[in-house]
């Protein structure tokens, strides 16, 4: 009895179909890998942005909350505090952070500049002597514009209300409002901070 042997093989059409399928699957895998990489990068950037915003907000809360009602030296009989607030900037005296090299009181100026919210620290002296800037500006928030407002009663007012300025007053505002607006249109909740010593005057 004769046994007929046959060799298995692929035709040209089968090879072309297999090659086409392999190329399609490879393209799909590479596309999925590229998409997942972009998602991961976007997520990492979002987390980094959220962390920076959280740190900036926390610094603003901490420093403004411990604003000090220290008086400015002068010849006027009226007591004027070292707190100067407008709608686009504010300068006040706070306690130095334990992590900073210079202790005591510090004068802080918070202002926007070229789409960034900056904070500058300077040593504060009650004598009113000019002091050099301490270190460089710190960037609190990036890509934003801000608007400050102040709640309280001015010298000639009996009832407290919101003001766009708080200057040459004998007390700290009861509340400091900070509206934050991102240049790309993103919405964000503003800040409402109460100085712990608001309404008191340094004796």
Task: Provide the descriptors you would attach to this structure in a database record.
four-stranded antiparallel beta sheet; alpha+beta; five-stranded antiparallel beta sheet; 203 residues; 28% strand; 1 helix
Can you describe what's shown?
With 203 residues, this protein is an alpha+beta fold. The chain has a domain at 58-193. Helices cover 27% and strands 28% of the residues. It has 1 helix and 9 strands. It has a 5-stranded antiparallel sheet, with helices on one face. It has a 4-stranded antiparallel sheet with strand order 7-6-8-9, with helices on one face. A hairpin with an 8-residue loop joins strand 8 (175-182) and strand 9. The longest helix has 54 residues, at 12-65. The chain starts with 11 loop residues before the first helix and ends in a 10-residue tail after the last strand. 19% of the residues are buried. The mean pLDDT is 78.
Short description:
The protein is α+β, with helices and mostly antiparallel strands. 27% of the residues lie in helices and 28% in strands. The strands form 2 sheets. The chain has a 5-stranded antiparallel beta sheet with strand order 1-2-3-4-5, covered by helices on one side. The chain has a 4-stranded antiparallel beta sheet with strand order 7-6-8-9, with helices on one face.
Overall pLDDT confidence: 78
Strand content: 25-35%
Order of helices and strands: HEEEEEEEEE
First-to-last CA distance: 122 Å
Low-confidence stretches: none
Looking at how many chains there are and whether they match, the oligomeric state comes to single chain
Largest sheet: 5 strands, antiparallel
Which structural class should the secondary elements be placed in? alpha+beta
Q: Quickly count the helices.
A: 1
The strand count comes to 9
């Amino acid at each position: 009895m004769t046994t007929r042997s046959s060799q298995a093989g692929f035709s040209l059409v089968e090879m072309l179909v297999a090659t086409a399928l392999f190329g399609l699957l490879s393209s799909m895998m590479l596309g999925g890998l590229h998409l997942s990489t972009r998602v991961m990068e976007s997520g990492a950037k979002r987390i980094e942005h959220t962390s920076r915003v959280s740190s900036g907000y926390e610094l603003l809360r901490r420093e403004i909350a411990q604003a000090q009602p220290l008086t400015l030296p002068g010849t006027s009989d009226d007591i004027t505090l070292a707190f100067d607030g407008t709608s686009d900037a504010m300068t006040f005296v706070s306690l130095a952070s334990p992590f900073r090299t210079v202790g005591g009181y510090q004068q802080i100026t918070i202002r926007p500049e070229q789409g960034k919210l900056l904070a500058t620290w300077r040593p504060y002296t009650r004598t009113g002597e000019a002091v050099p800037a301490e270190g460089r500006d710190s960037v609190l928030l990036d890509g934003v514009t801000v608007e400050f407002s102040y709640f309280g009663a001015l010298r000639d007012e009996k009832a407290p209300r919101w003001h766009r300025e708080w200057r040459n007053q004998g007390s700290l505002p009861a509340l400091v409002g900070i509206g934050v607006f991102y240049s790309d249109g993103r919405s964000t909740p503003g800040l409402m901070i109460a100085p712990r010593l608001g309404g008191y005057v340094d004796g």
